[in-house]
Structure formats: C-alpha cells, structure tokens
Design a protein that fits this description.
By secondary structure, this protein is an alpha+beta fold. The chain has 14 helices and 44 strands. The termini are far apart.
Length: 763
C-alpha cells in the first residue's frame, strides 16, 4: 500500500504547474495557427490537391481526338471516337515492353506525346525521342533529335527561308543553299523583321548576346513574305537597375525601348514584302503601324487567296482599319474602318477573312455591345449583323464554310451571371441562332474539325468542372469524359467563395462579385473586410470557374480572420458599352462601386465590419488601392499597393491612352496619385520589384517622393530581382499578411513565421 504524504502532494502539484506552463509555451498561438492554415490555402498548395481542370483535345485525322489526364504526377492517355466512346490510347505494359522499361510509374511520369497518327505515336521519354507502331504488335524505334539549323523562318513548301543578319533580310534557297541579300539599310534601331524585345530576355545574359525574335508571315503559296522594318530611332528608353547580380557588388543596368503615355514618338513598323521569284524586298506605301509596347506591330495574317489582311490602329484608339495588302502589286486597300469617339477596345477587336465566301467577319461594339458583322470582301459592302444585340461575343470558335455557319461563345443573353460564356451557332446571315451549351455555368468549348462533336468543360466557382462530349447538331451530351474529383480539397476544408450580386448606386446596373470566408467562419461574429481590387478596363477579374478562386491569394488572406471581397464594378470589360464607358477618362473611379456594394452587402450581412476595411491590389490594382484611400479615407483604413502605375504618364502608351484618351488632358493630372498625395490617411504599404519591366519602379518612387513632401507615414518595400508580379515572393506575401493583421485585427503577428513551399524566385 502506497502512502502519499504532503511533501509528495506538493511535488506533484509543482510538477503539474510546470507541465501546464511548458504546454502553454509550446502550444502555438491563435495567430500562428491561422498563419499555418493560411499557408495551406495559398494557390500552389490548393492547386496541388486537384487534377484535370482542363482537357485539351488533340484532333485525329479520321475523326475523334486523344487527350491526357493527370493523377498525382502520373499521366494517362485516352482516345475518344463517336462510335467507340472512350478507350486507352495505348496499352501501357505493351509500350513499356517495346521500350525495354520495367518501371511503369517512371514511364507515365516522363512520357510526353508529340503526335498521334492512325496507330503510330511519336513521343519522348526523358529527352529521348521515339516512334512506335501499335498495330498489330508494338514496335518502337528511336528517332534522331531534331535540331534547328538556323534562326530563319521557313516557307510552307519548305523551299525558302528568311533570315536576319546585321539587321537586314536574307533569302535562302533551301534546295541550293543560295543566299540573296534583300535589304541593305538595316541598323540596330531600324532593323527588319525584328521585335522590340521585352527586357526580361536580357536579364543575367551577357550584353549583346540576346537576339530579339524574328517575325513575319509567309503566303500559303510560298511566293511572298510579309514583315516590317521597325523604327526605334526616336523612341525613348528606360533603364532597370539590378542591384544584386550574384557576381559582384557592382549593379547592372539594362536599357530598353519603352514608349510611355504621352510620348511624342511611338514605335513604328513599316510594311515590307519579300518576293521569292524576283528575290527582292520592297517597302509598302502605307501608314506606319504603331506599336505601344514590346513585341511587333504586325496584327494580321494571310488568307487562302494569298493576300495579307491586317489591323491598322490610329493613336488614341478611336479608329481601327482592316486592310488588305496584295503582295503581287504592293497595293493596300481599306476594307473596314471602325470609329468611336471614346475608345475601341483592342483586347476584343477581331476579324476573319473567308475568300471562298467573299466575306469578312468583323467584330464591333457600334450598337452598344460586341457583335459580329459580315461584309462582302470584294466590294466591302456591309451585309448584316451575324450575332444579335442581346449578347456579348466573347470568341469565334469555328467557321463551317460549307454550311455557312458560325460557332461562337457569348455572354449576357441568359438569366443569371452575365459573364458566363455559352456556345452558340448561327447562320452567316444571323438566322437560326442555336444555343448548344444550356447549363448555367462558364463553358469552355472546342469544336471538332469535322463539325460532329463539341468538347465542353463547364463549371462555376461552387461546381467542379465536368468534361463532356456533345452532339453538335443539338448540343445534347452524348458522353461524359470526367467529373473532376475535389475530395482532397474537401478534406483540406476548402469552401468555395460565395457569389453575390447587388445594384449599383444608379439603381439599375447589377454588379457581380465574390465573398471569401475563413474556413472557421462563424456568422455570429464580426470580421474585418479586405477588398481585393483590380479595375483595369481591358477585362473582368472576378473568377467564374471552379479553378479561378484557387489561383487567388484571397483564400489565404481570409484564413487569417478576414472576409475578402472580389468584384467587377462599372468600367471593367466584357459587358455592354454603357457599363464599360464608366472608366473612360475616369480610371480614378474604379473603387466607387466597391464601396457602395460593401455598404449594401453589410445591410444584410452583419458579420461584415465596415469600421475595419482594408484594400490591396497590384499594377492597376496598386493604383486603385492608393486612389481609393484618397477618395474614401473614412472607409479604407489600410492598404497594400504593389507595382502600381500611380501616374498614367509613367506607364506604357497603349493601355493608358486607350482609356484616358490622347493627347493627355487635365484629367490625367487630376487622376494621378501624385497629385493628391496630401489626402492619404490610414496605413499604407507600397511595394515594387526592382526589375519590373511592365510598370517601371519610378512610378512608385515618384509617389514616395510626393508622400514625403507631405510628411505622410507609409511603409515601402523594394524587392531585388523581382519583376511586375510579387505574389510569388514569400516575403511579400507574409508582409502583406502581417500588415493587415497588425492594422485591421490589431494583434501581433507570429514571430519568425516562414511560409512553406514557397521559395524566393531566382532570376
């Protein structure tokens, strides 16, 4: 029998207290737990839990298609035909035996198929190239590694090649190896067939070693080559400083051409046509093509009639011309001229040339929404609207010339979210409009070349993707390829964001967005709100598919104890003109609808604490963040602005001049974040990458200068070796978390917390 005396009890009590103290010290704090949960809800971690968001059909000559599926890093390959349905593309064990490979798992992970033809497949395994016949037995032979012998552009018939040497054009006869120099006046800033390179190509490369990409288009009959001579001589340059090179303490400077908004001189491309018969190259008498960014100014293509069709844009984006170039004569003809007193959206302007139908298909918003119109190719006579005014044409998916039918995706005609895309078919004259994908969702479609089937993937933010095969005649689903498995996401505790709609302040315009909640959400509590803002008029930015939210950092932020708003207010794209034109000369008004929407949402959602509201964004969203804090200082208390274009005159010409108009007027200065720096209240964190090739770091430094002049408090982070997007830098991600936690939750952040599975990007 054991006797417990007072001394034993005292020792035991002391031990229990010590254990309790040790446990309290080692137990993670609430914020440490939230940070760990947020870590698991970062995009890379979420996306690793799910496979097969997309299916890309690879069409087979005899009909049907093959496609690839993934499963935790392994790949499987499948074939579909109307008559047989789904079947394996090949028998894995037989293929492994033919290749002499024993480890099937290794084979599935390293196999990459290049082409399938009848019963023959071409593929690579660990950089070794093979061709295998699968009928009647599997027989494989190794293929030689295909190398490109030159940097030229080869003609369709394989007989000719265009190369650029010392900035001039050379024509090579590939049958005889005979070379002919076609031009003689090329120079470094007035070179032929040469893009203006993005400076990211120059980073960490020996000076002068990077050869800009060569571009041009061959005619189908291989007789003519259309390109340009790119004039950079009067275009001003920018410089980026790389402070950390890893080689020495001496910084490195990168110089590149960058036309800023309001600059006198833009990049100009002068059309040139090379002729393989006369072995000459001649300049075309036509206005220069303007280029407002990196790349090249040639927006065009050859048609089956061997004529070249291209877009000519006038500065300010009020006039677009569709032009036809006859390479034989060098003559240019204007086919369509589109005008608008505010702007023509270059992100949606499109055309198709159908010579056999004597037809042009041309998109336009002239009736207040994006439609397709038809014209006669020979006479340029306007024929009719092909798509109705009730829907916004989003993409031309296929053209059935034989039956004179157009397949296109459009939005806005059906009840519900006006951004959902659906596939339609209509005759060229606009008759017999048929909806082929009726489910209320976002549809991503692929029309088969034989016009027998449609591959349709559809989903919503709260419905996982379903991959289907539809009969093209009536859109009926004839086979289901796959329903995406979300089990791992569900086990992680993932909850899709909640869609909402509210009326704008005008009382008639519906606005659509999402609310992201923490997985531990309790409707009886109140939560600070963070506005994830980006109001660029060139698109819309609220996710509509199941995959979309998984790419967002909003989910991780919500896990820290916030509710995050994402929405598209008036002025963003892909709706009617009246909605879109809210942004014209009014980029400063991007947050107006956000404030109004949150106020309406809070009226029925008492858990939204509008006394604690923050805002963040990058690029145009960085501008929006600072601007919103100026305009609504009593509403937005905390902001994080990354890579912001804080003054439109310190940014690229095309994007800014499209929405703010050209030439610059007083409104440019009025809407600059530099102008109103005295209005900043609240807590602001500014961040920029030192090697930002898109929005130069000067845009943030100029704002910093103004804030200092007005004695404003703010925080600033400059990230060495980082470009425009900072979301993939773990230090910035954690700093953004910390900033909102300290200033909206008013609690201390975990000490020395490091984000897992995210390393500092290496240039």
């Amino acid at each position: 029998m054991h006797v417990i005396n007072k001394f034993t009890l005292l020792v035991l009590a002391s031990f229990l207290v010590a254990c309790a103290q040790t446990d309290s010290i080692s137990k993670p704090s609430i914020m440490q737990q939230r940070y760990a949960a947020a870590d698991q809800f970062l995009p890379d971690n979420l996306l690793a839990q799910i496979d097969n968001f997309y299916i890309q059909p690879n069409w087979l000559e005899g009909g049907g298609f093959w496609y690839q599926l993934s499963n935790e890093g392994s790949k499987s390959y499948w074939r579909y035909s109307v008559s047989k349905g789904v079947s394996p593309l090949f028998e894995l064990e037989k293929l492994a035996n033919a290749l002499g490979i024993e480890n099937l798992d290794e084979l599935t992970k390293s196999l990459s198929i290049a082409e399938v033809k009848d019963d023959t497949i071409n593929f690579s395994v660990n950089q070794t190239f093979w061709q295998c016949s699968m009928s009647p037995e599997y027989y494989c032979q190794q293929e030689p590694i295909k190398t490109i012998g030159s940097k030229g552009i080869t003609s369709p018939d394989g007989n000719w090649e265009i190369v650029v040497r010392e900035h001039n054009l050379y024509l090579i006869d590939l049958n005889t190896s005979e070379e002919t120099q076609l031009t003689f006046d090329g120079e470094p800033e007035f070179a032929y067939a040469t893009q203006s390179p993005n400076p990211t190509l120059l980073f960490n490369q020996p000076e002068g070693s990077v050869e800009p990409r060569k571009v041009g288009d061959w005619s189908p009959d291989s007789r003519h080559f259309v390109t340009f001579q790119l004039d950079l001589r009067k275009v001003k340059k920018l410089h980026l400083t790389q402070s950390v090179t890893g080689k020495s303490q001496r910084p490195r400077i990168y110089r590149y051409h960058y036309p800023m908004a309001g600059d006198t001189h833009l990049i100009e491309g002068h059309l040139v046509v090379a002729n393989t018969e006369s072995k000459t190259a001649n300049h075309v008498v036509a206005p220069a093509l303007l280029q407002t960014y990196y790349g090249d100014p040639l927006w065009g293509e050859f048609a089956s009639n061997n004529k070249y069709y291209y877009l000519e844009r006038e500065r300010g984006f009020h006039r677009f011309h569709l032009k036809e170039l006859s390479p034989e004569s060098g003559k240019v003809r204007t086919l369509v001229t589109e005008t608008n007193d505010k702007f023509i959206d270059p992100w949606i302007q499109d055309f198709r040339i159908l010579p056999e139908q004597d037809m042009i298909l041309w998109t336009s918003e002239r009736n207040g929404i994006q439609q397709v119109f038809s014209y006669r190719l020979q006479t340029t006579e306007l024929l009719s609207a092909v798509t109705p005014e009730s829907m916004f044409i989003r993409a031309i998916k296929a053209i059935d010339s034989k039956n004179r039918q157009l397949y296109f995706e459009a939005s806005g005609a059906l009840p519900g979210d006006p951004y959902y895309r659906y596939l339609y078919r209509t005759d060229f004259d606009g008759q017999n409009l048929t909806l082929l994908t009726p489910e209320t969702a976002m549809h991503d479609t692929h029309v088969s070349p034989d016009f027998q089937t449609v591959i349709d993937t559809f989903s919503r933010v709260n419905q996982a993707p379903i991959h289907t095969v539809r009969r093209i005649s009536d859109g009926k689903i004839v086979d289901k390829l796959l329903s995406v498995d979300t089990q791992k996401l569900d086990e992680l505790g993932y909850q899709p964001p909640q869609p909402f709609s509210v009326l704008a302040q005008d009382g008639k315009t519906k606005l659509y967005g999402l609310l992201y909640f923490p997985s531990t959400f309790d409707p009886q509590k109140t939560y600070p709100v963070i506005d994830d803002i980006y109001t660029g008029p060139h698109g819309y930015f609220t996710p509509k598919t199941y995959a979309g939210p998984l790419y967002s950092h909003a989910l991780a932020l919500a896990e820290l104890g916030f509710i995050v708003l994402k929405m598209d207010g008036r002025g963003t794209g892909k709706r009617d003109r009246a909605f879109h034109e809210y942004s014209y000369k009014n980029l400063a008004g991007g947050a107006d609808d956000h404030v109004w929407a949150l106020q309406q949402l809070a009226a029925t959602r008492p858990y939204l604490d509008l006394d604690r509201v923050g805002i963040y964004g990058f690029s145009a969203g960085g501008y929006d963040t600072v601007r919103a804090m100026y305009r609504f200082p009593d509403f937005y208390k905390v902001g994080v602005a990354a890579s912001g274009n804080h003054d439109f005159r310190a940014d690229k010409a095309g994007w800014n001049e499209t929405w703010m108009d050209y030439p610059a007027g007083p409104h440019w200065n009025e809407q600059s974040n530099l102008t109103d720096a005295d209005k900043l209240e609240g807590e602001l964190l500014l961040a920029h990458g030192e090697l930002d090739e898109n929005v130069h770091p000067a845009a943030t430094f100029q704002l910093v200068d103004k804030l200092i002049q007005f004695n404003k408090d703010f925080e600033l982070m400059i990230y060495p070796n980082m470009g425009h997007v900072l979301h993939n830098h773990p230090h910035f991600v954690k700093m953004r978390w910390d900033f909102f936690v300290r200033h909206l939750l008013n609690v201390e952040t975990p000490i020395d917390y490091a984000i897992s599975n995210m390393s500092i990007p290496i240039r």
